[in-house]
Amino acid sequence: AWAEDGRAYDIEEGDTAWTALPDTFPPTITPAFDINDVTLGTVNGVTYIWYRGVGCFIYDEFTHTLNNVTLTGISVPDTLGITSYGGYLIAYTEEQIAWSSLIDPTDFTPSQVTGAGGGSVAGIGGAIQFILPNDLGLLIYAHSNVIAGTYTGNAQYPFKLREAPSSKGGVSLDLVAHEA
User: Fold this and answer.
1) pTM for the whole structure
2) By three-state DSSP, how is residue 175 classified?
3) Distance of alpha carbon 7 from alpha carbon 123, whole angstroms
4) Does residue 35 sit in helix, strand or coil?
5) What's the rounded Cα separation, in Å, for the pair 28 and 10?
6) CB-based contact 89:43 (threshold 8 Å)
7) CA-closest candidate to residue 47, choices 37, 60, 62, 36
8) Are the beta carbons of 113 and 123 closer than 8 angstroms?
9) What's the number of CA atoms in the CB half-sphere (13 Å) around residue 9?
10) Sign of torsion, CA 70 93 59 68?
């Protein structure tokens, strides 16, 4: 969990109080911290935490620290966030999405062998704001519409993208009704 200033906290199973993580890395404890700049994706039981403009981390429950993880094939400054679906870690910029390899969720280098790939989103209405998983795949919230990415099960083209009818876009992650 994160406080309004960016300080990260954890709570262990059986505990009743939150514990602040050390103020070492990443450098997010600032007055300008925005919780919308933190996104998560879980693949194979590992939760990847993306800090916009900083990079990707995993939480080490034994040392109570966030450890840096390198995502190959994507640009840290351009990437807005991550999510996950169907064994894929999914990263996105304002204009494109990328899905990871099914073998290594940190590998985004496009490959027909590993299944990693991505590209521009046809029919998108403005910049991508955020992406959320749902029961059928992904919902890509843009400035003025939503693109539904239905999971296909095809490793080369894992999502069939189409505009959600009568959608009006998204503003913030905390203004979305999940699974409603």
Assistant:
1) 0.90
2) helix
3) 38
4) helix
5) 16
6) yes
7) 60
8) no
9) 12
10) positive
